[in-house]
Amino acid sequence: MDTPLREPTFLILTALAVEPMHGYGLIREVAALSEGRLSLRPGTLYGALDRLVDGGLVHIDREETVDGRLRRYYRLSPTGATTLHAETRRLRHNVDVATARLRKRARAAGPTVRRPVEGLT
Predict the structure, then answer these.
(1) For residue 116, is it within any domain?
(2) For the Transcription regulator PadR N-terminal domain, which residue ranges apply (predicted)?
(3) pLDDT digits over 81-116, tens only?
(4) Are 55 and 82 in contact (CB under 8 A)?
(5) Whether the predicted pLDDT of 117 surpasses 70
(6) How far is CA 52 from CA 1, 3, 119, in A?
(7) Is residue 15 part of a domain?
(8) pTM greater than 0.90
């Protein structure tokens, strides 16, 4: 799987960077990492996990039965870690470029005089 990664894929790999997780744990962790912007549905998550396993970025770590249901844990593979590192570098570069351009824009605009807006304190 090449970079750039779609945000859900990036966040799934990020969630798995620390420890193996099962599906529901991944759904919660992705929501937390995205500060609630991204809410994965189970079908979306498991489709993504199947693609990540097929692509060698994620491995099945183990399976256990909880309350009569199979719980599968996934872990980041070495290839997945390499991909996550590459994507992180790519995103960091983009942020650095955008930040530099915004600073240049602000300098070119010159100092701005801030005046209080009437009615607001």
Answers:
(1) no
(2) 12-85
(3) 999 999 999 999 999 999 999 999 988 887 766 666
(4) no
(5) no
(6) 8, 13, 55
(7) yes
(8) no
Please say whether the beta carbons of 83 and 3 come within 8 A: yes
Distances (CA, A) of 15 to 58, 93, 94: 11, 22, 22
Cα–Cα distance, 52 to 120 (Å, whole number): 52
Structural domain count, the chain: 1
Six-digit token string for 111: 């100092």
Residue 111 lies in a domain: no
Neighbours of 19 (CB within 10 A): 11
In a domain, 11, yes or no: yes
Token pair recorded at residue 22: 């099962």
DSSP letters spanning 34-50 = TTTS----HHHHHHHHH
Among all chains, which residue has been given the structure tokens 């570069």? 93
Whether the CB-CB separation of 12 and 39 falls below 8 Å is answered with no
Q: What pLDDT digit, counting tens, does each position of 23-82 carry? A: 999 999 999 999 999 999 999 999 999 999 999 999 999 999 989 998 999 999 999 999
- Give the pLDDT confidence score for residue 109 in this predicted structure: 86
